[in-house]
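Task 17 of the worksheet. Students: predict the tertiary structure of the chain below and write it out as structure tokens. Keep your answer in the requested format; marks are given for formatting as well as content.
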Amino acid sequence: MKNIKIVLGIALMILVVAGCSKKEWTFEEEAKEWTTPTGRRNYEVVPYENGFYYVNSQECLTYYNIDADSSVVLCEKNGCSHGGSDCFAHIDMGEHVPYVSNHRLYFISFDGTVKIAGRDNIKKETAFRILEKEQEKGMSLMLSDSILSNRYLYIVAKVSDYKESEDYGTQTEQIYQIDLKDGKETHLATIESNEGRFSLVSAKDGVLYYEWQSPWTEANTIEEQRQAERAMTKKIYRYENGQAELLRTIENGFLVTANDDIGIYYTEFLGNGDMQSKDMYHAEADGSATKIFSFPEGFSFGDKDGKIMLISVGNKHMLYDLAKREESGQDIDWDFDTQMIGAYPVPGGFLAPKEEREDGIGDGKREELVYKKYQDPAREEKSTGK
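Model answer:
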């Protein structure tokens, strides 16, 4: 088990190309796997090869190699103490842990500024800015979700069309696809801010899965929370080649994940007002649904990568293989004080925020990640050469 200090409370970042990049970037012909968002938690981590990127307590980008059990600050500046803004690995306020694609690191800021660096040379260069022309005309932009898959960046942006006669102007949420190769920005969808919110689910090259969720109803009592659960609606869309198709409407439950390889998984709420689920379903192509498993006492689940999900039922924690539709047979010994709901899959295990509590009780500030290993047959086969 490995404790890794990180910087918390960083908001989501996003990548953009304004079409003014002067370098010719090379890209793979196709992405190898489906990509999922990395910024929905109170911390950020980007799995890559045999480890993951994270931000350490000095606000410097660091890579942890799982096999070597070691961390390296990504800075080659001579004499650098890796403790200030002059460090090449320093993550500026409003930036996020970078996306890694085609041997490059992509850093994205709140305002849509995108910086790029090579994996071996962390010194960043400003490449472009999302919707730059619109922002120059007075449009306010704040990124709230993103996915990068090979040459395509997908973003959700909160947009305000500010007018001097109004306090805020028109506020919307918009989804864009940005082609990093030629800088083309394609608008996919728009909703008014009071009509709900968008979330990105998964992407692979030119295909994007995203969801719309209805506005959350304010609830102050258990009964109101139950009513809010029953009123929650999600719509799952698949976008490709300029067309968005509504695939599924989910009522009274959560979307687990969705992509072309495994389809759509979703849950149905238990109904106790605690946002716990009781059943998980797989949406079939003919519109029907297959119940995958059921826990009448209720279950919750951690973050997922479209392959493996971590399920918690009471004090028992287990892994579920979404592709095989079966439990892995492994019980996870969650023997530390962590936020299991925030657990995120990385090679060979999960990362979860460890909650530090003052005086042993109360709400503490999450300042550490705990790496919890599990038996990963794919990694074992690779290491033994099978």
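Marker's comment: The radius of gyration is 21 Å. Residues 222-231 form the longest helix (10 residues).
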